[in-house]
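Input (structure):
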């Protein structure tokens, strides 16, 4: 019996904004329930990679397959409805809306096959992961702390009940204790079987979560492998420590 097909497969993927090419020939696969860290300095192409997978404002080449479906020519809303969620850098919440209303907006992207009962169960899971959000359900998103806003951005993506979740620099600008709490929640989500792709500058935390990783440099993949190999790699140390 052959090995199970990966949930995500990229083959020679490139991405550009207009005529400016950012990514070149990126190839990797990720199995269901596994986590992958996307590492690299600022400007390496991490955000563009996540945007290319989710179909947001980039011109793509190569092939991207999600759960045996080709998505490289699909618009973003159809990709989201296949079960791919994105938590963008900067959060992009609806500031005047309450926590509850932001969660309802996230639920609009869920598959039509998913019931209201499933949506209610997802909300219960979110409030178990992030009790602070439960305490602030009626509070406007713009009045939350930075850490609470990041929790809400993750929660909103979860409301669509994705099978594959991408996060772009979730720890940026947050206090160490909040970062610790966020990554504890991500570990719990991974234990539920959620597949995670994480672009993150905080390498130790990223590699603690990840099973595998990829190091980008100037839009190209210069290293791929298991987390222990990446943790010990002089290339990774050079990018982040300047060695």
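Output (sequence):
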């Amino acid at each position: 019996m052959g090995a199970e097909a990966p949930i995500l497969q990229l083959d020679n993927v490139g991405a550009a904004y207009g005529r400016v090419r950012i990514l070149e020939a990126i190839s990797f696969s990720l199995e269901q329930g596994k986590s992958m860290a996307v590492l690299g300095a600022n400007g390496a192409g991490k955000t563009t990679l996540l945007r290319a997978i989710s179909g947001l404002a980039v011109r793509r080449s190569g092939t991207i397959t999600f759960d045996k479906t080709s998505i490289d020519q699909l618009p973003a809303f159809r990709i989201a409805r296949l079960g791919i969620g994105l938590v963008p850098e900067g959060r992009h919440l609806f500031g005047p809306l309450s926590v509850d209303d932001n969660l309802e907006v996230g639920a609009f992207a869920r598959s039509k096959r998913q019931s209201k009962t499933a949506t209610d169960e997802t909300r219960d899971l979110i409030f178990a992961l992030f009790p602070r959000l439960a305490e602030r359900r009626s509070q406007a998103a713009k009045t939350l702390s930075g850490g609470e806003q990041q929790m809400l951005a993750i929660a909103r993506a979860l409301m669509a009940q994705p099978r594959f979740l991408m996060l772009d620099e979730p720890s940026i600008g947050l206090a160490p204790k909040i970062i610790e709490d966020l990554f504890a929640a991500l570990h719990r989500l991974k234990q539920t079987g959620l597949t995670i792709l994480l672009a993150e500058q905080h390498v130790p935390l990223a590699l603690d979560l990840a099973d595998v990783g990829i190091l980008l440099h100037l839009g190209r993949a210069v290293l791929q492998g298991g987390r222990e190999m990446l943790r010990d790699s002089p290339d990774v140390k050079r990018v982040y420590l300047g060695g």
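Notes: The mean pLDDT is 90. Residues 176-191 form the longest helix (16 residues).
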